[in-house]
Amino acid sequence: MRIGIIAPGAMGAAVAQRLRARGATVAVTLHGRGPASAARAAGLAVQASEAALAGWADVILSILPPGEAAGLAERLAPVLCPRGAAVIFADCNAVSPDTVRAIAASLPGVRVADVGIIGGPPKGEGPGPRFYASGEAAEALRPLAGWGLDVRPIGGGIGAASALKMSYAGIAKGLVAIASAMALAAARAGAAEALFAELAESQPALLAHLRRSLPGMPDKAYRWVAEMEEIEAFLEGMPFAPAFQAAARHYEAIAADRAQPAPDGPVAQLAALFAPPPTAAEKP
Questions:
Q1: Are 154 and 130 in contact (CB under 8 A)?
Q2: pLDDT tens digit string along 40-90?
Q3: Which residue among 80, 118, 136, 259 has the highest number of C-beta atoms inside a 10 angstrom radius?
Q4: Neighbours of 279 (CB within 10 A)
Q5: Is the peptide bond prior to 7 cis by the omega test (within 30 degrees of 0)?
Q6: Please, what is the Cα angle at 5 between 164 and 172, to 5 degrees?
Q7: Other Cβ atoms within 10 Å of 18 Cβ, number
Q8: What is the CB-side half-sphere exposure of residue 277 using CA atoms within 13 A?
Q9: Class for domain 2-157, per CATH?
Q10: Separation between Cα atoms, residue 274 and residue 216, nearest integer Å
């Protein structure tokens, strides 16, 4: 099984390296990618372009920011569709069920798997993330487990794995959006110290979780904008749906500040607010 991964971002490159380390035949493309992608792809086989990779691979794992998922499928359709059932296209992106069904419809004849990745990039010998897969091609991804990926087929057809991903991400990243927004509001009103003291007393587990998850959020915020919009689409017709449009704008503002940091901007404020408490040796 020849496995092509688009693209070698933080997750895609880590997945490719895990597969290679366990003996799989895997390749990526660096076309249109920068030095950081090239560094992450060190040691991996490289195809000249997306089209070349799609023509070579038996399985394509699409691992992209969600706003790029449909565009990739459209670009690869002229290569993949003539190959038909000889190739599996696994959309592993944080998109809504409607989006992944549209992606599947844009690849007639191709075996499409809907995959939701839950968990961070694989590291070392750790277990890595879970690859929940649905659709008729989901079972065909089971061999990836032999090369270190935790593949978990589920029922429900195309859209089921994305629904699981949307629901999980809505809880996990929605909580981060709410917590960071309320902390910034408390700081603006001069109540941050009291808020964190109350959290430490009444919600210590929640505060510990936020102190683990918030510091790294600004680096990912640009990718979470489209993900929040996909969750809003997933919740269409439900009263809570507009909350995720607000979350998208919140992450958009944080991503903008991350790109051009202001000394008193939200990124700097969140870093200060959610810094780990001082150890006993650090206390005055």
A1: no
A2: 999 999 999 999 999 999 999 999 999 999 999 999 999 999 999 999 999
A3: 80
A4: 7
A5: yes
A6: 30
A7: 23
A8: 11
A9: alpha beta
A10: 11
Model pTM?
0.93
Q: Which long-range contacts (CB under 8 A, 24 or more apart) does 193-198 make?
A: 196/273
Measured torsion, CA atoms of residues 225, 226, 227, 230, in degrees rounded to the nearest 10: 130
Residue identified by tokens 């990739």 is 72
Whether residue 266 contacts residue 217, with contact meaning beta carbons closer than 8 Å, is answered with no
Task: In whole angstroms, give the CA distance from residue 76 to residue 129.
Answer: 26
Contact, 28 vs 41, CB < 8 A? yes
* Measured distance CA(20)–CA(14) in Å, rounded: 10
Predicted local distance difference test score (pLDDT) of residue 281 = 58
Q: What does the pLDDT look like over 106-135, one tens digit per residue?
A: 999 999 999 999 999 999 888 899 999 999
Take residue 242 and report the two structure tokens written for it: 């507009």
Q: Is there a contact between 98 and 121 (Cβ–Cβ < 8 Å)? A: no
Judge contact between 141 and 59, C-beta under 8 A: yes
62 sits in which H/E element: strand 59-62
d(CA 53, CA 204): 48
> Position of tokens 């599947």?
104
Sign of CA dihedral 37, 101, 138, 74: negative
Provide the token pair at 262: 């202001």
Question: What integer is the mean pLDDT of 207-214?
Answer: 95
